[in-house]
Fold this sequence. Notes:
The protein has helices at about 5, 10-20, 20-35, 95-115, 120-140, 150-160, 165-175, 180-200, 220-230, 235-245, 270-275, 315-335, and strands at about 45, 70, 85-90, 90-95, 205-220, 255-260, 285-290, 295-310, 335-340. By secondary structure, the protein is α+β, with helices and mostly antiparallel strands.
Amino acid sequence: xxxxxxxxxxxxxxxxxxxxxxxxxxxxxxxxxxxxxxxxxxxxxxxxxxxxxxxxxxxxxxxxxxxxxxxxxxxxxxxxxxxxxxxxxxxxxxxxxxxxxxxxxxxxxxxxxxxxxxxxxxxxxxxxxxxxxxxxxxxxxxxxxxxxxxxxxxxxxxxxxxxxxxxxxxxxxxxxxxxxxxxxxxxxxxxxxxxxxxxxxxxxxxxxxxxxxxxxxxxxxxxxxxxxxxxxxxxxxxxxxxxxxxxxxxxxxxxxxxxxxxxxxxxxxxxxxxxxxxxxxxxxxxxxxxxxxxxxxxxxxxxxxxxxxxxxxxxxxxxxxxxxxxxxxxxxxxxxxxxxxxxxxxx
Length: 347
């Protein structure tokens, strides 16, 4: 199927995905066609035969008499089967087939990483992602955002061009278990998401106060106190990092953490809090941090502070993701969501 034929199905794909009432229309149309296929007269009339070849005048029916008839009761049309559902989100269905396809792609992707078995809750993760996806699409359309065949065709052409040629692109689709129709739907979703996400996350700042700091990490609390005292007394911090820090991959840089904000950029909020409480060149107290159940100890020195420093894309993107997740949590609370499967059951 070429791209033009696929694009002719865009409205059908969108209708089934976003406007479930269209399915009701198709169901009614199917029933009408089924009735038409049974013949022009759905209630045929059967006349009782007359076996008397020479009927007497007395037995002949009078001209105004009504001939008795037997009326056959028509068979009801066969109902059009309803595709099984995985979930319903604000009256919009997520079909079981769609969930199973996404599940297969998730499992294939996990196998390709060569890692251990996926999270035992991965079926729930897949279903949640489909629900979130639908909530985003519904919000985008409610806000007036749309897609068009031209927009989708352009994106499709760009993606196929990146593969080198159409054969390579089709091979990629097959390897990732996408039909061309499914990939068109992915493009349409991506366009809607790119339109609505900036509106959802418009409160995420593009600049924040930031500090630059360097650190020493140790596992022995007594040694940590000793090293911290030496740093506070004026010993060269870079030398102490190279001599004592467990993170030798940062030793050549003097334990430099670079610039960071205090909105969750670092893995340990205790370090962010301590760094933002220090003046430039200040030395922190020993900071106990638990990592994977193991206690470790940090010593910080702040080397610079900027009150309104632009965020890099790597810094801002996690804030955008957090804001999106918070928005989705609110949408879930307001939505009517019905589940028809138990993702915890692998049967």
